[in-house]
Amino acid sequence: MNALDANGTLDASSVSLLKYPGYTHPEAAPIKIDLNQLPPAAASSGSEISQEARDKALKEVAKTKSQMIQAQASHSLLINDPQIGELVKALEDSTPSVINDMAGLISTALTAPAGSGTANTLSQDLALSKAKLNYLVTKFIPPAQQDAAGALVDRYVEQKAQGQDDVYIALKKTQLDIDKQTGNGEQAQTQQALDALQQGQAALQTQRNAMLHLVDDTTDSAAWFTALRQTLPASSSDYDPGHRIELAHIDSLQAQWEAFTAEVARLTAMHT
Q1: How far is CA 92 from the centre of its chain?
Q2: pTM for the full predicted model
Q3: 3 state DSSP class of 2
Q4: pLDDT digit string, tens, across residues 182-209
């Protein structure tokens, strides 16, 4: 088949037929390429890449790969977390000789003991995460940089609190839809609760704020856990399963805090 038309131009659809027999080109305006307008092919120099150039290129590739490996090894995977990565970098840069231990401490600071799940325990977990992160900042970040690192802790906590609120609001909106569909008479009450959440004035939000302020106001950790126990609803009793879970969770948080501070003391001794 001749792919050139009477004017000496190349039809793209003809090229497709030449390369792929049986191919049916879709109906579209053909693209015309004027062969006479193409620049002349550059003359081949006939020379090949020298061995010296090959060796240099290979060395550059090896150097780049080595730099990438070193960069990855200088920080834990936590640095990839968009919410906490900047703080992780600051902490790990301050303790390069014990980076694996620091990564473990940061992970503990972000991890809650088992048994959480209620609004109260989630707020407790966030308050203690804030306390543990601030503790790492004061122990390992140079004084001149502590304010900036503390701001990163605050930003992380705010994002986590907003994430909790987003879940609470979504659940309340779902409940409101159910109330509307079933006509169960609870629509006004649910709407009021939703409005309070959206305005940041719901009881669970004010209680969480109190817990977050608690770990800022004093360095006496024993007072934290006493106050956390006191924040539980007064109407709850030891016979209430939810109340027992929340009390037990505070005990777990206190045990985690004590183990955490002991590990910080060990790491501080290694770092100094």
Answers
A1: 17
A2: 0.69
A3: coil
A4: 988 899 999 999 999 999 999 999 999 9
